[in-house]
Amino acid sequence: MCPAPTARTRVRRQAERADYDRDTLYAIVDAAHLCHLAFADDTGVHALPMACWRIGDQLYLHGSNGSRMLKHAVGGAQVCATITHLDGLVLARSAFNHTMNYRSAAIYGVCERVADADKPAVLDALMDKLAPGRSRQARPGNAQELAATTVLRLPLHEFACKVRQGGPEDDADDLALPVWAGVLPLRLAPQPAQADSDFEPTPDYVRAWR
Amino acid sequence: MCPAPTARTRVRRQAERADYDRDTLYAIVDAAHLCHLAFADDTGVHALPMACWRIGDQLYLHGSNGSRMLKHAVGGAQVCATITHLDGLVLARSAFNHTMNYRSAAIYGVCERVADADKPAVLDALMDKLAPGRSRQARPGNAQELAATTVLRLPLHEFACKVRQGGPEDDADDLALPVWAGVLPLRLAPQPAQADSDFEPTPDYVRAWR
Predict the structure, then answer these.
(1) pLDDT tens digit string along B67-123?
(2) Is residue B205 scored above 90 in pLDDT?
(3) What's the mean pLDDT when you consider all of chain B?
(4) Using the beta-carbon criterion (under 8 Å), do B182 and A194 form an inter-chain contact?
């Protein structure tokens, strides 16, 4: 379950936080709506936010055919897709030991283009990740819309996760200092749904959104 | 307020969402606890999460002297620091028009190392961003801790923001479809603070954390 990492996925700083377990990776990916995709082109190195979703051992990305990122990413270039969930601010008694709680995954590889015939099912999976069952409700993409969309897959093979959870870890000499210490947790939390117009019945995923 | 972008910061896809205004940039940076820093080294292209904060027209990053990212970033290499706030899922009546609400900023440039003499004030600003006033409460970094920390600044000069807000934008032909449409908002929300031990008085920033 913990493949030997490659040179670029071996976590060196705070290696005790490293996790190469596939279940950890999948949990981080499945909880994410977006990743930051790093790639290099002739203007430099970029990190751009993209929606992402998983089917099996593949991470999927999509966008307009005209996207320079996608054009570049289909060209066989190496990319790095990184997901980070920020779970809290960790306030230690010393400035130096302040940190954050987070779950992150960096996935390295080369993207492949998803064949036209496979796009509808792959895009349905995105829709159903956003809102379970919605792929059977919204109007499906027509031929023109599907043709205008590039869908890429990045194998979930070369990756490193890094996770930090729990309270502050202060130096022993600092534990008696008169300073509040603890965690200020954060969560990407649903807020009340905003309907675009009156519509009944309200779907389950809208009623459950809170 | 809207400098002419460079070739790599000119937003081409959905250019109506582009914003080169410095106030927009500062608001996105100041609301963020972390960015994804993209850089390239001899093992490839990376995007790694890092804490970030702003003083004036500089973005600051820090880490251990041993960090390969920081070692590389101080070497004069071009980097891209990207921040994305996800504000909601936008459910349109057609699959194709589904999107997300977000505020993102991509900042390009070359990092400079912050001089040792300037580190304490710059790190205090990070602390006070996490928790206002805390830089006067926590034990300050000692000489050894400060020496072990590399602090970098990235000028907020070459950047592009991209913002999408509001409800779904459906094709006119789709407006009458029997499909719920609207926004499922998201917010990185404070959760109840977790004290590491009993301590009185509770600081203002802990009591206000919710």
Answers:
(1) 877 887 777 899 999 999 999 999 999 999 999 999 999 999 999 999 999 999 999
(2) yes
(3) 94
(4) yes
Choose among A48, A190, A205: nearest Cβ to B82. Answer: A48
User: Which chain A residue has the Cα nearest residue B96?
Assistant: A141
* Structural domain boundaries enclosing A59: 15-207
What confidence score (pLDDT) does residue B2 get?
65
User: Which pair of structure tokens corresponds to residue B147?
Assistant: 């020496």
Phi, psi dihedrals of residue B151, rounded to the nearest 5°: -120, 130
CATH of the domain at B149: 2.30.110.10
Q: Considering the domain boundaries, does residue A1 fall inside one?
A: no
Strands (E), chain B: 18-19, 34-41, 44-51, 53-55, 58-64, 78-91, 99-110, 112-113, 149-155, 158-164, 182-190, 194-195
* Distance from C-alpha of A128 to C-alpha of A134, rounded to nearest angstrom: 6
In a domain, A9, yes or no: no
A102–chain B Cβ distance below 8 A for any pair: yes
Number of folded domains in chain B?
Answer: 1
Quick check: is A6 in a domain? no
Chain B within 8 Å of A94 (Cβ-Cβ)?
Answer: yes
Q: How far is the alpha carbon of B174 from chain A, nearest alpha carbon, in Å?
A: 8
Residue A47 lies in a domain: yes
